[in-house]
Amino acid sequence: MRHGNILTSKQLSRADIEAVLDHAAAIESDGSAAVEDRSETVLGLLFFEPSTRTKMSFETAIKRLGGDVVDMGSVDASSVKKGESLADTVRVIEGYADGIVLRHPRQGAAKLASEYVDVPVINAGDGAGHHPTQTLLDLYTIRENAGLDDLTIGIMGDLKYGRTVHSLAYALSNFDTRQHFVSPESLQLPREVVFDLHQEGASVKEHESLDPILPELDVLYVTRIQRERFPDENEYQKVAGEYCITTETLEAASDELSVMHPLPRVDEIAPGVDTTDHATYFEQAHNGVPVRMALLDLLLGDSDE
Amino acid sequence: MSENHELRVSKIKNGTVIDHVHAGQALNVLAILGIDGSDGEGVSIGMNVPSDRLATKDIVKVEGRELSQEEVDVLSLIAPEATINIVREYDVVEKHRVERPDSVEGILSCPNAGCITAADEPVTSRFDVLDDGVRCVYCERIVRDGIPALIER
Ligand SMILES: [Zn+2]
What we know:
The structure holds two protein chains of two kinds.
Chain A: H1 14-29, E1 42-47, H2 52-64, E2 68-71, H3 79-82, H4 86-94, E3 99-104, H5 109-116, E4 121-126, H6 132-145, E5 151-156, H7 163-172, E6 177-182, H8 191-199, E7 203-207, E8 219-222, H9 233-242, E9 258-260, H10 281-286, H11 288-299
Parallel strand pairs in A: 1-2, 1-3, 3-4, 5-6, 5-8, 6-7, 8-9
Chain B: H1 2-6, E1 15-22, H2 26-33, E2 43-51, E3 55-63, H3 69-75, E4 83-88, E5 91-97, E6 103-105, E7 126-130, E8 133-136, E9 142-143
Zinc ion (ZN) binds at residues 110, 112, 115, 117, 136, 138-139, 141 of chain B.
């Protein structure tokens, strides 16, 4: 993984994933476990779409490793409007930074960027495509709570546009998991993703209702269903309630069930769930820093090279 | 009988005959090969010609130009049954079938409006060729139907 790019979770093998998660665990228990002195390392943050949390998480991670960031700020308002291409932007930033973290509204943007620069490119979300570092912190959280083998996971919500879902599903296919996808029909997983998961030999089932599978789940991963995905408000209201998790919903669940969410949530998980043992989403968010520290430490290689 | 059909498309002296093209695909064959006659080559097309193998077929004859293997392979995306005849001095000197390439570059444009290749970036489109379609290597969209509509013109 050294000096490579992190473009999709598809590229990650089980060994790659375990290396990052093990390193993250080591860093979490002992902050000095990072292998390199990063005081000379500068990470370029290019966010063409606002994402305060992901950006702050990367910024915190590199600073905890002793490094620093160059941040283009609100790229949307400056160079993009002037028409500079992404290919040009990343070639400029390459001159300042040892690695580039890219969030972009178009699918394949990180791949394109990686073709133009020699520093590692980390995809921090490309349209409806991939979000591999979110996946790594999701996996870290799942491993801590339920383990990654012999796992039954429900993934619910907007599965069509949810890049965190696509990335997670690909990564989970490296492990002994049974994946249940729960969504309204109009927001099912893209057929491409289902095609890939079948190719990987993953155990995949699709459902419109959570009820029949909830009792067998070790993990329930919830994502938001956005109002704007529906042509009319009534259709949305009908669906929104059905895919909202409350303490009553969870009465049918195993005591061990972890409820996860990439955050921010709106109303798909009722606040009452926060105080139950099921709520794992804040822990999940906190895991972003050690996991990104581990990834950066492994990916950016030896600063002496 | 067969001689009669042959007369619909005149014989060529030197060049390539692309035979057994699915009926209706002849113009797409020219488009995917980037042949529009502007280089002065003679081009003749037979459409809906009766065929033993395909019931009806299209035929494309390009005078004065021998197609490269790469060009021929790209044809497989829209004309998988096609046979290629290289003609010299009115004789067929080579005859072969198309084979599907592993990938094609700069031939098709991605139909996904959210794909980075649809933005104003210096990027050449690239598709992996699947058994039953093509897949954009940037956004990973799979296209199984309507490939001719993606041909960059
Ligand atoms: Zn594409």
